[in-house]
Each structure stands twice: as structure tokens, then as C-alpha cells.
């Protein structure tokens, strides 16, 4: 009987210790993750400021720079200012779905620009969507040659529950995610140059396009640091709470026996 009780106490203590350590480690890991994200954002903000002090590069210079330096990270040519002189193709207009602005659902309008050597997807800005999903916004495609400035943005793929089906495209084409390889296949009948592996976001100062409500970073570094502090505080609070409950629930036998009457203790 004593052996069984001792085994139960050991098992209970092991489970308590395991739960405490696992939860504490997860909270600490989340804190470090948010801190590292904040540090990355802080470095990127400094980099963007430095890049904006430079003269914009041409599209060909951007491509050459990427090849010459053989960038490997996602921050390679990301955020570089660029100036473009090219022809807008009005036959292909992509509407990127589920884009929110001031609690209103809408789309980002994307068109293809061709230069003598390249073709690239241009983000022209945000337009209001309709409550009726069958109704697409009335967008007038751009045509002809335009000279404008923008910034390079590397496309980050999100999670999709189902693959996008473009077997029977209808233009303008509503898309859930930017997939440049699939887009290149769609425009190949008229444009023989594959799309470059990035998107150009038109600068906010340009009159070209629609509402330019984007920011290089959705969440600033300060928020990440704040979340890191919150996770760290939760980790400490969890550890203190578990130690407190452990102390409160432990009731040594000798302490209990001291409070019993003498007659009961002698039985």
C-alpha cells in the first residue's frame, strides 16, 4: 500500500514537473521568436531608409544586381527603389482578393508591364469590392507606355487550402494569391517573356493606379518587442503559479499528525 501511494506521488510529481517545463519552454520560445522578428524588422527598416537615399535603379539593373551578387535570402533585392519605362498590357488584369482597407473588403489591381528585355507584375493599388461576390470592381486597364517609380517586393507565399484553378480564366481574373509561374503561363499567348520573380509596388507619390495603402512592413518592430515582453511575462507568471500551487497542495504527513489528538496518534 505504501509502495502504491509512493508511486502515485512520484507519477503526480513527474507529470507536474513535465507540464511546468513544457509550457514554460513554449512561452519562452514564443518570446524569443517575437524578439527575433522585431530585430529583423528593425534591421529592415534601417535598410529601407538607406535604400531610399539612393537613386532608383532600372529594372535591368535590378535583375543584374540579383545575378551578380547571387543573393540567397528573402531580403535580397527586396525594397530596392526602381524606375520603370515600359508598356502596360491591358489584356491581363489580376485582382488580388481579400484585401482590407479601413474594415472594407477589396482587391489589389495587378497588371503586366513589358520592357524590351523583361516583363514584370505591377501592383497598382487597392479598389473597393462589392458585397455581392459575383460582381467584380469596375477597373479600367492601363495601356501604352508609362514612366514611373516603385519598390521591389518579393512575393511571400501564404497557406492555401486548395490550388488555384486557371484552366478557364476570365479577365479581369480574381486570384487568391500571387503565383508568378502560373501567371506567366496565362499571359504566354501574348507575352513571351516570363514574369520576373517579384512584384513592383508603385510609389505612393505616383498618380498612376489606385489607392496605395501599403507599407513595407505590416507590423513594426515595436509591436514584436511588445509581444516578446508579454510572452516572457506569461512564462514567469506560469512558473510562479505552478510553484505556488505545488507548495499549497503538498501536505506533509508529519504536519498533519501534529494536529491530531494524542489518543488518535497512538492508535
Automatic annotation (TrEMBL):
Q: Where in the cell is it found?
A: Cell membrane; Membrane
Indicate how the chain sits in the lipid bilayer. Multi-pass membrane protein
The residue ranges crossing the membrane are 15-35, 225-245
Q: Predominant location of this chain?
A: membrane
Output the PROSITE patterns linked to this UniProt entry. Answer: PROKAR_LIPOPROTEIN (PS51257), SURF1 (PS50895)
Keyword line: Cell membrane, Membrane, Transmembrane, Transmembrane helix
One family name in Pfam for this protein:
SURF1
Superkingdom classification of source = Bacteria
Q: Which PANTHER family match?
A: SURFEIT LOCUS PROTEIN, SURFEIT LOCUS PROTEIN 1
Q: What is this protein called?
A: SURF1-like protein
